[in-house]
Design brief:
A hairpin with a 5-residue loop joins strand 7 and strand 8. The chain folds into 4 domains: 20-86 and 154-178, Immunoglobulin-like; 89-145, SH3 type barrels, CATH 2.30.30.520; 182-290 and 312-359, no CATH class; 368-451, Immunoglobulin-like. The protein contains 1 helix and 35 strands. The chain is mainly β. The radius of gyration is 33 Å and the shape is extended. The longest helix is centred in the N-terminal third of the chain and has 6 residues, at 89-94. Strands 2, 3, 5, 13, 16, 19, 20 and 21 form an 8-stranded mixed beta sheet that branches. Strands 14, 15, 17, 18, 22, 26 and 27 form a 7-stranded mixed beta sheet that branches.
Length: 452
């Protein structure tokens, strides 16, 4: 009898259990840009096993820029993923169960009640009269939910599978980009007309609408326009530092690549939804000049009557208690007297380096008027036109003053004649300064030839 034997080969299976490790944030650095963009850098710690370690991290702002985060640590990153799933319509509605809603039918009829049930393309309401309303097909319906700020963006979750070089406590550096954080410069400028001196205070106006609080972070802000592939009025919370009588800098700029960076020395907290002012610098006894300017061109219509703009200018120099980068921003101007302060205008200020002149318009002069009496154009040749303009300028002030008349064109032109010598002359710009006696008028005329 022949016997048969069945031989079984037993192959051991090796299973590697990868457990998620708790992540501890030791410190956070935040760099804000002026374009609704920020870089977050965090030093983190976690315990690692000898083989593989799985990390899960969800302490991100809701506007995390996808594929921008990276982890730097002593080991290998075998896998990295980010979950940026949006909350679907039904989930968002389920989160509103118990809320008061208005259901607007396709016929524009509205019914109000409490949302009690949400299904696939169906809802149920308890109406105010005690009855219940079931809707099986929501096509054409609108649902208005009272006092419910809907957020379709789920919080991002990052996951890593790591192979560290050593087990035990490991540290790493996490860097990612986010939107919802930004800064601008806010200026408060006080004009002393009697002494022709101004005082200026500059603040970094920080805004956080990222969906996340930042507590005790190292803060930097960058002045400059970055390229990325990718304002309302708020109550201000101010954090001021001590100032000297004429000049105080809370933070100094340092070159960073082709931009300028400000590193604040103190720890800063910026909660979600918060707007905060942090002082950059202040200066006083800065000499300034106030002039009036009216701008016109070929397209200015005859019989146009207007008032010139009030132009405030000062030189960014050490002699004027300045002499450093003045970042672009928005300025509020105030007129100061012995017993009062009056708001006189608001406008933007462009960035200015040492030695440059800062100038901006703050409003229009009420007691100076300019009327365009005539604007005559004649064609001399195919590529040449002659334009003659005449203005009637009236000074209702009881003091002597002057007004600048600026003429601009997109093409090069030549001045043929004028009854006032130009103060500045450029290929596409002329600037005249018209002096006036108190309560007087002046007829100003000039002719230019424009190359088309």
């Amino acid at each position: 009898m022949k016997s048969s034997f069945l031989s079984l080969a037993i192959i051991p299976l090796v299973c590697i259990a990868i457990f998620s490790q708790e992540v501890k944030i030791n410190s956070t650095s935040l760099t804000l840009y002026q374009s609704n963009y920020a870089i977050v850098k965090q030093q983190i710690e976690f315990n690692a096993s000898a083989d593989y370690t799985r990390l899960v991290f969800d302490k991100f702002p809701k506007d995390l820029v996808e594929n921008s985060f990276n982890l730097l640590f002593d080991g290998e990153i075998l896998e990295q993923s980010i979950d940026l799933k949006k909350v679907d319509f039904n989930t968002a509605l389920r989160n509103a169960i118990g809320k008061e809603v208005n259901l607007i039918q396709p016929q524009k009829l509205s019914q109000k009640g409490k949302l009690v049930l949400v299904g696939e393309d169906e809802i149920a309401l308890n109406l105010d009269d005690g009855s219940s309303l079931f809707v099986k097909d929501l096509e054409g319906y609108s649902i208005l939910i009272n006092n419910y700020p809907l957020d379709y963006q789920a919080k991002p979750i990052a996951k890593w599978i790591l192979k560290p070089r050593r087990s035990g406590l490991n540290s790493a550096f996490l860097v990612y980009h986010t939107r919802g954080l930004s800064w601008t410069t806010k200026y408060f400028i006080y004009l002393d007309e009697q002494n022709q001196k101004l005082s200026i205070s500059a603040y970094a106006n920080l805004q956080n609408f990222s969906g996340m609080d930042f507590t005790n972070v190292r803060l930097s802000i960058v002045e400059g326009e970055i390229l990325t592939k990718s304002a309302p009025t708020y109550d201000y919370r101010m954090e001021k530092l001590a100032a000297t009588s004429e000049f105080s800098r809370s933070v100094a700029e340092t070159p960073s690549f082709e931009y300028y960076k400000y590193d604040f020395p103190q720890s800063v907290s910026l909660n979600d939804g918060e707007t905060k002012l942090l002082k950059i610098f202040s200066a006083s006894n800065v000499p300034y000049k106030k002039t009036f300017r009216y701008t016109l061109n070929t397209w200015t219509q005859p019989n146009t009557r207007d008032n010139p703009y009030i132009l405030v200018s000062f030189v960014n120099s050490k002699a004027n208690n300045l002499g450093f980068l003045i970042p672009r921003g928005q300025a509020d101007f105030y007129f100061t007297s012995k017993n009062d302060v009056e708001f006189v205008g608001q406008n933007n200020i462009r960035s200015s380096l040492e030695g440059e002149q800062v100038e901006t318009f703050v409003g229009k002069a009420t007691d100076i008027s300019i009327q365009v009496i005539s604007n005559e154009t004649r064609t001399i040749s195919e590529n040449l036109q002659e334009v003659r303009m005449e203005l009637l300028i009236k000074n209702f002030k009881k003091s002597e003053t002057s007004c600048e008349i600026e003429y601009l064109e997109n093409s090069s032109f030549e001045l043929v004649n004028s009854n006032i010598k130009p103060k500045e002359k450029q290929p596409q710009r002329l600037l005249f300064e018209i002096p006036w006696k108190p309560q007087s008028s002046f007829n100003f005329a000039f002719t230019v030839q424009i190359k088309r």
